[in-house]
Design brief:
two-stranded antiparallel sheet; 6 helices; alpha+beta; HIT family, subunit A; 19% strand
Length: 321
């Protein structure tokens, strides 16, 4: 933590719009342009229309069903086929929506689609793990303005997950995130929101400004095995977190990252969702050392965002003139 660095001018970068931000006529994810995408894998909504669509990514990072076999190409070179599944989850037919502004019925379908697709990935031979992400804004990785997410089924467990699994294995007090959530609720000052289904807090170990973690209260390793009602409640928690961030920081870029245990993992794990505002640039020190410098303490972040939620609540409760 280096909060003194927060006094520097121009600390947080504004969100960069995608090039097609206003180009609804040519947006491949807008209604009427369904022919611009590959045929839908899943469609959610009333007959004759759609509210959520899942389509294969035209530019997949992972595709094919070749076995994941690592081959040596020299003393230090190895390679393996990038087989797997890469899908696009279109969150809404409305071009100018975002995850933060999805109405309840829309959000419920989005979360149900995520759960369904991860379950489908698990049944696909050769895959070991699903990564679900939502990128908002150009510098967060979004290449299309229309609200969408990415669903990837891959044949290996990525390092971020193996590191998390190792952290759970090292923790001697039961479940690491059950303990962290309980501790955060007990002290209170890093908690943004808590309900019977989840706890949202700025983690003690936050590496970036206003980073948030959403943890289901009921222990479980796998998102796709959780009851749909609890998965939907987690989606609502993410929406609230994004609304607080937008209220306090304005139109920012962000990443929402879902972490669930690998399909056949049996060790201790607790699925959760990272909310990562894209506010600062990782410079030479961070890239050269792997050490992150956070200029906003998690205590301050949670306080700022609680204040933002209060402002939203006051505005919504005030009589309309």
């Amino acid at each position: 933590m280096s909060t003194d660095r927060a006094q520097r001018p121009g600390l947080f970068v504004p969100r960069q719009p995608t090039p097609d931000a206003d180009d609804v006529a040519h947006c491949p994810f807008c209604p009427g342009n369904e022919g611009d995408t590959l045929p839908a894998l899943e469609v959610y909504g009333p007959s004759g229309s759609w509210m959520v669509r899942v389509v294969p990514n035209r530019y997949p990072a992972f595709q094919g069903d070749a076995p994941f076999v690592v081959e040596n190409r020299g003393p230090v070179f190895t390679e393996a086929p990038a087989s797997g599944i890469h899908e696009v989850l279109v969150l809404s037919p409305e071009h100018d929506r975002s995850f933060a502004s999805l109405p309840d019925d829309q959000l419920s379908l989005v979360m149900a689609a995520i759960r369904d697709r991860v379950e489908e990935h698990q049944s696909t031979h050769g895959l070991r793990y699903s990564q679900v992400i939502v990128n908002q804004g150009r510098q967060a990785g979004a290449s299309v303005a229309h609200p969408h997410g990415q669903l990837l089924g891959i044949p290996f467990v990525p390092r971020e997950l193996t590191d998390e699994q190792a952290g759970f294995a090292r923790f001697a007090g039961g479940c690491l995130l059950c303990a962290a959530s309980a501790s955060e609720e007990r002290v209170g000052y890093r908690v943004l929101e808590a309900s019977e289904d989840f706890v949202t807090f700025a983690p003690f170990w936050s590496g970036t400004p206003y980073e948030l973690l959403v943890v289901p209260r009921e222990h479980g390793s796998h998102l796709h095995r959780a009851p749909t009602s609890r998965v939907v409640a987690m989606g609502k928690a993410v929406r609230t977190a994004l609304q607080a961030l937008t209220e306090h920081l304005g139109d920012i870029a962000y990443n929402v990252v879902f972490h669930s245990a690998p399909y056949r993992a049996t060790g201790m794990y607790h699925w959760h969702i990272h909310v990562l505002p894209n506010l600062t640039t990782r410079a030479g020190f961070e890239l050269g050392t792997g050490v992150l410098i956070n200029v906003v303490s998690p205590e301050r972040a949670a306080e700022d965002l609680r204040d933002a939620l209060e402002k939203i609540a006051m505005r919504e409760s005030s009589p309309v003139a």
